[in-house]
Amino acid sequence: HLLDGLRVLVLDDEADAREVVERLLEDAGARVHTAGTAADALTILDRGFVPDIILSDIGMPDQDGYDFMRRVRSREGAVAEVPAAALTALARVEDRKRALMAGYQTHLAKPVDPSELVVTCAIAAECDPLADDALAYAARITQAGGRAHAVTEPGLVHGYLRARHSVPRAAASFDRVTAAIAAFAADSWPF
After folding, report:
1. 152 with 188: CB under 8 angstroms?
2. Closest to 69 (Cα-Cα) out of 58, 61, 77
């Protein structure tokens, strides 16, 4: 299985959507924890669960996925640096940009394609775009049949600028990563 042993936290206020994602990931070998509210997801993290990736809906009552991710990114320790994907029906370009600005590495539109979900989880957990070469990251996504949203979105550079001050390892890799993004943009920027 592609996701054997991968620890995933899934946050979605819709029980049916949460169960579908959970089943898809478990069928691919992942160990999945689920939450129906941002508060429940934060409690799971508070209890010491450190996932390999977080999948979160955006449009939820009480606390939305943007605020949830900002709270995750503001925490101390490894959980603050866990890769995250926004899994949401909010699929406009502005929505993707806003998700990146909140701290997500990528954005998947609902209804999600099962293979894209599994590939995104596998790649996001294996490759940290703050530490890996951005061109290699984009190439791995493309080779696996996915889309390189995390590299091709214009909001990513701003995300790196913000992360440089909030994520310790981002400062060390910032120059190398921005150079790779610039090289990638010179050949393939979609705008």
Report:
1. yes
2. 58
pLDDT computed for residue 10 by the predictor: 98
- Taken in order 40, 46, 50, 54, the sign of the CA dihedral is positive
CA torsion sign for 87, 90, 96, 101 is negative
Contact between residue 181 and residue 151 where contact means Cβ atoms under 8 Å apart: yes
Q: Is the peptide bond before 51 cis (omega within 30 degrees of 0)?
A: no
Q: pLDDT tens, 33-69?
A: 999 999 999 999 999 999 999 999 999 988 999 999 9
pTM comes to 0.68
Helices 168-188 and 134-143 sit at what angle, rounded to 10 degrees?
A: 60
pLDDT tens-digit readout, 159-170: 443 443 444 444
Question: Quick check: helix, strand or coil at residue 103?
Answer: coil
